[in-house]
Specification:
221 residues; alpha+beta; Glutaredoxin; Glutathione S-transferase Yfyf (Class Pi), Chain A, domain 2; 2 domains; 4-stranded mixed sheet; 8% strand; binds glutathione; Glutathione S-transferase; transferase activity
Length: 221
């Protein structure tokens, strides 16, 4: 069971890359340079018709959508215990948070970064203003979720919600109010950034600007 991940440093592929490293299972990583437009080639679009990263080859078939890939990997590797089992008491909270991150926060992030590319350049500022509002609402909601002092989002264990949430929090680092400025998000972020698998995914993707020891202001995603 070998996977092949198509990724771009710091992009939506990062959560999947991080999870694969955390699970310590064999996989290959193929760089798609989205700044150079490698996601728009015919060859890549045959794997991912949207022309986006990530793509994960699973049993020889190309699959997309970061949140879906995290859930799929958790289902295929139950021994890794990175998601509550079906029927368990934490399952509903896990589903709700995964869908919230994928369905509300991630699209707002897409609008923030791609307002003038996906939409009309003339209306980009209005789209970004709405996106920023939605993103900050999400930090409020997630901050409240962690206010009881829990270490991870669901079930007291590291899991798919954490991979997705931390990746999205990282994307806010150059915004006016980054996730690190929320009271309960900051200690959570610092804890998760200290995990060996997070340090490793940063090293493999060549990322140095959002670790517990370095805070630069460069880059988009
Ligand atoms: N809903 C998709 C979004 C993926 C996405 O927007 N990826 C961005 C990088 S963060 C991308 O591929 N951008 C290149 C482009 O749109 O041309 C997912 O979660 O996988």
């Amino acid at each position: 069971m070998t996977y092949s991940l198509y990724y771009s440093p710091g992009a939506a592929s990062m959560a999947v890359h991080w999870m694969l490293i955390e699970m310590a299972i064999p996989f290959e990583a193929q760089l798609i340079d989205i700044d150079a437009g490698a996601q728009r080639t015919d060859e890549y679009r045959r794997l991912n018709p949207s022309g986006r990263v990530p793509t994960l080859i699973v049993d020889g078939v190309a699959r997309g959508e970061s949140a879906s890939l995290l859930m799929l990997l958790a289902e295929r590797h139950p021994a890794a215990a990175l998601a509550p089992a079906p029927g368990s008491s934490d399952r509903a909270e896990w589903l709700e948070l995964m869908i919230y991150l994928a369905n509300t926060l991630l699209p707002a992030m897409r609008d923030w970064f791609y307002a003038g590319v996906d939409g009309d350049l003339a209306g980009a500022d209005a789209i970004r203003a709405l996106a920023r509002k939605r993103i900050e609402e999400a930090w409020n909601r997630l901050d409240k979720h962690l206010a009881d002092g829990r270490v991870y989002f669901v079930g007291g264990m590291l899991g798919t919600v954490d991979f997705l949430a931390v990746m999205l929090m990282r994307w806010s680092r150059n915004m006016a109010r980054p996730a690190t400025t929320w009271q309960h998000l900051l200690p959570y972020i610092e804890r998760l950034r200290g995990l060996p698998s997070f340090i490793e995914v940063n090293a493999r993707e060549g990322l140095t600007d959002w670790s517990n020891s370095a805070h630069s202001t460069n880059g988009n995603v």
